[in-house]
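Problem: given the chain below (482 residues), write out its structure.
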Amino acid sequence: MATPVIVGTAQSIDRPGDHDLLDAPGPIELMVAAARAAADDAGAPTLLDRVGWIGVTGGFYRYRNPAAVVAEELGLSGVGTAITEITGTAPQDLVGLACERIAAGELDAALVLGGEARWTNQQLKRQGLSPRWNESPGDGTPEVIGGFAPEAIAEMAQLGSATVFYALFEDALRLSHGRTVDEQRDHCAELWARESRVAEANPYAWDRTRHEVAAIRDESEQNRMICFPYPKAMVANNTVNMASAVLICSTELARSAGVADDRRVFPHVVTSSHETWEVRRRAELTGCPALTAAGEAALEHSGLDVSDIEHVDLYACFPSIVQMSSAALGLDEGRPLTVTGGLGFAGAAISNSVGHSIAAMVPLVRAGGAGLVHGNGGSATKHSFAVYSPEPPRAFARIDCQDRVDLHEREPLDESFDGPVTVDAASVRFDREGPTDVLAAVRSEDGARAWATSADPGILDEAMRNGISGREGRSAAGSLHL
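Solution.
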């Protein structure tokens, strides 16, 4: 068995004002720049010529096979190509697959890429302009990696956005810790202020402004409420022009290419698992059994305790997932939990936050100490963990942890249900004009769960002032009454 090793990583960013809009680089240009920089980072630019497989994270673009377009730009032929479905676990899913194939001798070298130019694209659309960048769809049919069950996609479409799910988790966490609404908002803002300080020091963060607690927590003209208790500052930012690249090869190829020992970082393990696909059917809204299983399996295979991990990057799209993942791993929320600044401040293309996490993690691991990276997709649905080390593993492993996950699914309530319920969690949804309605996860006396809504101003006010979770009420065909 060969030993896979990361020999180079890189990030590219095109900030507002760096170029005239019509001359700005697109997704392909950003990914190609990152790929070349990753080879330079390895100290072996000719390694790109040995790449036999390119995996690209899914995104908000029109490319059918972006990996093929990148390969053409790099002058590569006969390269295997892959694209993921849109999910936050995508970069680590691709790293795991590439490492597994290198270990099996199926590949000598691989590139894992992700990137978009969504900020520029939106600006062009507003001005009625078309981009000049490479929009070739890409030849051939790529291998498609990942995906979500139809019921998860349907539930997301029904409720409208990922933000409301994470806001519901936040309210459930508030209730479980016995905090007031204001105390939980403070807790979130303090956590996010620590993320902001990391982004401030990150040269590849989209937003390097230091945001203090009050500015993150409080509504303002620049910080409108999205889903209570989350204003814009607590919401993931995917409107960026950014890309990342991870160059992986066998240790034998690294040696023959002259890659110095101090450039090599070894993936020990990549794990994966998923929660109950529908959030309404999950046993609890305050934790993730699949997250716990994937994290424990990663540490177990590496022979490490969480206290042995020097560098940590927990997926940070919203505050609730960081609280859940840190609790699952036994990590103190006061310690550094990101190496980038998280999705709120560092930003990333829709599926590529973890790509930047890996690119930022590798230089830290080279300097000493193991690193742990968490990926999260959907509504805290899919999870991936990887351990990166300056020391080689006994053997690399890609582990599906699903058989370790005890999901304890709840029965869903029929949409026509009319009867007494307990509110498990609630969030107030907003549009640009203000609050629109309350969405609540409600539980019947026999433990089945459903969604219920209300536009009653009194219920909206109570949900934001004192919270309604834990309250008894009535659900009548999906309408909440307290």
